[in-house]
Design a protein that fits this description.
Layout (H helix, E strand, L loop, with lengths): L10 E4 L2 E3 L8 E3 L8 E8 L2 E8 L5 H15 L7 H6 L9 H16 L9 H6 L12 H8 L7 E3 L5 E3 L12 H15 L5 E5 L2 E5 L8 E6 L12 E7 L2 E7 L4 E4 L2 E4 L14 E8 L2 H14 L1 H10 L4 E7 L6 E5 L15
Antiparallel strand pairs: 1-2, 1-10, 3-4, 4-5, 5-8, 6-7, 8-9, 9-12, 10-11, 12-15, 13-14, 15-16, 16-17
């Protein structure tokens, strides 16, 4: 899922109070009291989005976490001219990947193979062509799409054992924005665990990794929004609330980042096979997985695959669950499809598949 694109806004709800995800301009620490069981809250901006972190304890880890953000940016940011991924895109053959880049490439290739190419870390030139990347859409034609498809494809990149990235075509561009926020949630969560913190929630741009319980001693609660068409992201109506712990969750949607041209609607998630915006039945794809890097990549993949093919992947892997809001060809409304295992995790009236 491209991280320059808007994704479905998820609200984090601790106990009965909704914690609204606000657009904070400066990084800050909200220090809880020093009593046993108190929680510290961190918040700020990173990767052109906002983050919120809660964890049990009074120790301030904010500076350490911000250092992780800087290391991550220097590894995987396309906006950083000196990052490892930028150097790879410039065909710098001397660059050797670090653990961040290696993990992202290996997971990306794994999910690409699992989804038969619905997920593709090389799709950025097509995203740009359609006006959802660095450039505005201008004069898109079948000829232009076909010419770009020649150097789009995960099979065109190869990671060598010694850490070099080889490209079959020098025009291939890697873009980790569809997986980076999810992975960064995992990185921060692993750091907290390394400090013996077991009760925490890490949210970066709507992607979440959590463990243990919240400050009220209850499961972490995550709201899933109604898929209301809203390019300004100002309308947020909860459809369901999911109660989770010791897992990760990521959401992708096509109703936040889109535009109309000549009476036709174009959304930001591109089908790597056709080169065109994905036009399948899933309006919102929420994935629950053991880690957020997997949930993030699959949430985008399922938007491309559609509900039926996505359900087959879910049935084959018992560690995964998903909640889809889909268009309904038989009505003007939408329908909800979710993994049966999610039924007892939802607090809503929508408990029928």
């Amino acid at each position: 899922m491209s991280k320059r694109t808007a994704k479905l806004l998820i609200y984090i709800i601790a106990a009965i109070c909704v914690l609204g995800i606000a657009m904070h301009r400066q990084s800050s620490t909200i220090q809880a009291d020093n009593e046993p069981g108190s929680f510290t809250q961190l918040e700020g901006t990173v990767f052109h989005t906002v983050y919120h972190i809660q964890y049990e304890g009074s120790t301030d880890y904010h500076d350490n976490i911000k250092q992780l953000f800087r290391e991550f940016d220097g590894s995987l940011s396309m906006f950083n001219d000196t990052s490892i991924i930028t150097r790879i895109n410039r065909c710098d053959t001397s660059v050797i990947v670090n653990d961040y880049v290696r993990t992202v490439l290996e997971k990306s290739l794994q999910v690409s193979q699992l989804t038969q190419g619905a997920y593709d870390i090389t799709v950025a030139p097509l995203v740009n062509l359609w006006g959802f990347g660095f450039k505005n859409a201008d004069g898109v034609s079948q000829h232009t799409v076909d010419s770009i498809l020649q150097f789009v494809g995960y099979e065109k990149i190869h990671l060598t054992p010694d850490g070099h990235v080889l490209k079959d075509d020098p025009r291939v561009i890697l873009d980790a924005s569809s997986i980076a926020k999810g992975y960064m949630c995992d990185v921060v969560a692993d750091y907290l665990r390394s400090r013996d913190v077991s009760n925490f929630m890490v949210e970066i741009g709507g992607e979440i990794t959590c463990g243990g319980h919240n400050s009220k001693g209850k499961l972490w609660s995550v709201g899933i929004n109604e898929p209301i068409e809203d390019s300004l992201s100002t309308t947020n109506v909860l459809r369901d609330i999911m109660h989770i712990t010791d897992c990760s969750i990521a959401t992708s949607g096509n109703y936040r980042n889109f535009y109309y041209k000549d009476g036709r609607r174009y959304a930001h998630i591109i089908d790597p096979h056709t080169g065109y915006p994905a036009q399948y039945d899933i309006l919102s794809s929420t994935v629950v997985a053991p880690n957020c890097i997997t949930a993030d990549a699959l949430a985008t993949s399922f938007m491309v695959l559609g509900s039926q093919r996505s359900l087959r992947i879910l049935e084959a892997d018992t560690t995964l669950m998903a909640y889809f809001i889909c268009s309904d060809p038989d009505s003007d409304h939408y329908k909800v499809i979710y993994s049966p295992k999610l039924k007892n995790m939802l607090s809503s009236q929508n408990k029928s598949n």
